[in-house]
Amino acid sequence: MTDAQDNRDEAVEDENLARSYGLNDEIVQEIQGAIEREDTAFIHDTLQDWHSADVADLIEQLKPKLRLPFLQIMEGRVDPDVYSDLDENVREHLVDEMEPAEIAAFLNELELDDAVDVLESFQEEEQREVLNEIPVEERVVLQEGLSYGEDSAGRLMQRNLIAVPEYWNIGQTIDYMRDTDDLPEEFYEIFVVDPRHHPIGTISLNRAMRSKRTVQVRDIMDTEQKLIPVDMDQEEVAYLFQQYRLASAAVVNEDGALIGVITVDDIVDVISEEAEEDILRLGGVSEDDLFGSVMTTTRARFLWLFVNLLTAIAASIAIGLFDATMEAIIALAVLMPIVASMGGNAGTQTLTVAVRAIATKELTAANMLRILSKETMVAFLNGSIFAVLVGFTAWFWFSSLQIGLIIALAMVVNIIVAAVAGMIVPVTLDRMKIDPAIASSVFVTTVTDIVGFVAFLGLATVVLL
């Protein structure tokens, strides 16, 4: 076989791999062309083995005007899970064109948490119309799911689970699972309950399958379990799963009765969601920015930019206090942004670490002083190194040892203050029950700007004038 043939085979293999895992521009362009020329056979053949997540990605990447024609061409072949994987703005645009009965049909096929998540994005009147198209038994379950707080364990849990009394044996348990039609699609544990339906233990599936039929459930159940209150925040739930390496956990109501189960596949989504949310909030944007309308995105970002404008004005006022100094020594205007920029970056580094540590409960009152001391020392060392570099640069640039010393000292002061602020601000906001990911960066940036300018210009005023 020639080298050219080998290369062609490798290229084909790479292309097949790319088509198996996610999308590429070529596939999207091909499908858009097929939609425009109404080539139904090509689209059906291409997408017949695609995962629902990939189909959702495809819909998001299609031109907006082609999304509805695509669904019409698919003629009910779209997996209902596609709708739960879609960006909320894209999904809202699509379901606006659907009848309540059509929406109810795909909601009925979704798991409870996904169905509730989709329903929650509808207006109250739209919710009512869709729920009226759903059979009574399923409707009651959905309404109960909607009654729980947003981002709570009640929104995450599945109602389908396996619960058996402690006086059964393994044989009875296995027969029960074989004879029950509405078993969960995926489950990892069997819950053992008392007569009041309170969970008192769990049996992993592998242990149940390895035990003889005559073994009593109570003899092999694990009595140590993490019970999740139905109103617990999803971030707390995710922490429990991470901390204790849980595969699933029972959800209980205010009376301690078993009402649902949360599995690790739901928690993977939560962890990704929470991490993404924190990152986006640090930048003052929302998760729907990418597919939101121009006006919606503009309104969402306006407040953040307005707050930043106010903090910039505060920094400008601080500079204005030293206008005489700057008029006398033009070099200060050239060097001043360096101090503020270095302080801002140092503060952002510490802030990012602190916000993440708060979210993962690694930063607590017990270790706060120790971590703050460490961050202060790191800031002092970094500040000293950069102070030497910038000080010598300023000295040679403007032939003034005094200016070099002033900017060096201001650099050390501002980087240390930035590190301290980057740690204290998010911790303080967290104690005040304010999400540190939202508000911290504004305060830290303001502190570093003002301290940087005041330290630099104040030292210059004292030393040079």
From TrEMBL:
Pfam families: CBS, MgtE, MgtE_N. The keyword Endoplasmic reticulum does not apply. CDD domains: CBS_pair_Mg_transporter. Keywords: CBS domain, Cell membrane, Magnesium, Membrane, Metal-binding, Transmembrane, Transmembrane helix, Transport. It is found in: Cell membrane; Membrane. SMART domains: CBS (SM00116), MgtE_N (SM00924). The chain crosses the membrane at residues 302-322, 328-355, 376-397, 403-425, 437-464. It is a multi-pass membrane protein. Residues 221-277 form the CBS domain. Its main location: membrane. Belongs to the SLC41A transporter family. Acts as a magnesium transporter. Homodimer. This is Magnesium transporter MgtE. It comes from Sneathiella sedimenti. The gene is mgtE.
